[in-house]
Design goal:
With 204 residues, this protein is α+β, with helices and mostly antiparallel strands. It has a single domain (2-200), classed as Maf protein, CATH 3.90.950.10. The chain contains six helices and seven strands. The strands form two sheets. A five-stranded antiparallel sheet has the order 3-4-5-6-7. A two-stranded parallel sheet has the order 1-2. α1 packs across α4 (173-179) and α4 (173-179) crosses α5 (181-192). The longest helix has 16 residues, at 47-62. The protein is globular and about 50 Å long. The protein binds ligand CZF and magnesium ion. Magnesium ion (MG) binds next to loops. It is an enzyme of class 3 (hydrolase). Substrate binds at residues 8-13, 71, 153-156, 176, 181-182. Belongs to the HAM1 NTPase family. It catalyses: dITP + H2O = dIMP + diphosphate + H(+); XTP + H2O = XMP + diphosphate + H(+); ITP + H2O = IMP + diphosphate + H(+).
């Protein structure tokens, strides 16, 4: 069975990747499936820097090809925040619910027209004997006034996607993958790296 290792501890991302990879006959493993605990410090100031950092460090530790994902939400009325700090916007403990509250509070009194936002995702692929490569994707939408739906993770309950006319958290994982920043970045990866897809079979 073909397998790909995603250098993430985020179970929500893992589900997104499963929906994207499983139809291709590729199973997804993440850092949560390993016995050792690996948590790379994200010291970069861009999604790209952090994605490369996570991919290269985990690949070096395990000696296999890995994909890392660095992603986040940019809200225009908040000058692009939370951006690269999306996971810890409301505090170091990474609390999705508190992060959502902080975004909603920051947008108090902001009209529907001015609530534009986007998700961004950079995927970095790193492995022994290969140059690290990156692929990016984005997904435009706007921030709702209240939570809607229970699927997904992070800011999905308050992110409205005009393409699907629903909140991201109201979409199935498959539907999310069709329009998401992660789906778009992975589509790039697949298009440009058919060779790499073959080598996923050797990564275990
Ligand atoms: O509603 C959302 N739907 C998404 O599809 C999504 N993608 C990213 N995000 C937010 O951005 C942070 C990433 O930060 P991040 O890339 O550092 O990941 P992380 O720290 O959660 O896990 P890891 O991969 O680093 O182990 C996440 O925690 C979320 O708050 C999303 N929110
Ligand atoms: Mg992180």
């Amino acid at each position: 069975m073909k397998q790909v290792l995603i250098a993430t501890n985020n179970k929500g991302k893992a589900k997104d990747f499963e929906a994207l990879f499983n139809p291709l006959g590729v199973t997804v493993m993440t850092l949560n499936d390993l016995e050792e605990t690996i948590d790379v410090e994200e010291t970069g100031t861009t999604f790209e820097e952090n994605a490369i950092l996570k991919a290269e460090e985990v690949s070096k530790l395990l000696g296999v090809i890995v994909i890392a994902d660095d992603s986040g939400l940019e809200v225009d009325a908040l000058d692009g925040a939370p951006g690269v700090y999306s996971a810890r916007y409301a505090g170091l403990e990474k609390n999705d619910d508190a992060n959502i509250d902080k975004v909603l509070e920051g947008l108090t009194g902001v009209s529907d027209e001015e609530r534009t936002a986007r998700f961004r995702c950079v995927l970095a692929v790193a492995g022994p004997e290969m140059e690290t490569v990156t692929f990016s994707g984005s997904c435009e939408g706007s921030i709702l006034h209240d939570r809607r739906g229970t699927n997904g993770f992070g800011y999905d309950p308050i992110f409205y996607t005009p393409i699907k006319e629903r909140a991201m958290a109201e979409l199935s994982a498959i539907e999310k993958g069709e329009i998401s920043h992660r789906g778009a970045a992975l589509a790039q990866l697949k298009e440009h790296l058919p060779k790499l897809m073959e080598s996923f079979g050797a990564s275990r």
